[in-house]
Amino acid sequence: MLSITIPAARPVPPAALFDPEAPVPLANILSVSPEGHLKWRGKTYRCALGRAGIAMTKREGDGATPVGCFNLRRVLYRPEREDAPQTLLAVEAIYEVDGWCDDPEDPEYNRPVSLPHGASAEAMWREDSLYDIVVVLGHNDAPVIPGCGSAIFLHVATPAYAPTEGCIALAREDLLKIIQDCDSETQVCVLD
Fold first, then answer.
1. Structural contact between residues 66 and 139, judged by C-beta atoms closer than 8 angstroms
2. Contact residues for 42 (Cβ-Cβ < 8 A; gap 6+)
3. Is residue 1 a part of any domain in this protein?
4. Total domains in the fold of the chain
5. C-alpha–C-alpha distance, residues 134 and 76, integer Å
6. What pLDDT digit, counting tens, does each position of 59-100 carry?
7. Phi, psi torsion values for 179, nearest 5 degrees
8. Which of 57, 30, 12 is nearest to 149 (CA)?
9. 139, β-bridge pairs
10. Is the pTM of this model over 0.70?
11. For residue 2, is it within any domain?
12. Residue 72 is assigned to a structural domain of this protein
């Protein structure tokens, strides 16, 4: 089982993150169970995970949601579809030229890029609503290790909570509610 270190630097066993008897929820940790439940501030929300479930070792294109704790970096949003979300995180609008490099051979791997890009890159401006609100997670970004996964986000789920390519997806209303209280110290912890 994964152990998580909270600000007081004491390890917390993952089961404690889902303990209904716990008197106070852990501050600044969004905990995600392998069954697709995200717990935040005493409430539990349904979420979609990767089509391959969760994985201790993430590889590019494996369809798995990585196990571990990742800081929330910033929020991206589609300004013609959404108002800027209310949050304590940095907020940036995304546009048609925005992409995210997913080619492990490219020097810009797991980084935002402008499209068209000379290597494979995911378009952030989508026809569906899944990326209307995106929270960039600090997965494989400090440092970036080629092939260990890119573009791991919190984003909007499909109405049926279809599996993702490795991200964590929530209902739009739930995602907006959750990020209101999130800041740069907030972590999402995917538990095994």
1. yes
2. 25
3. no
4. 1
5. 5
6. 999 999 999 999 999 999 999 999 999 999 999 999 999 999
7. -70, -15
8. 57
9. none
10. yes
11. no
12. yes
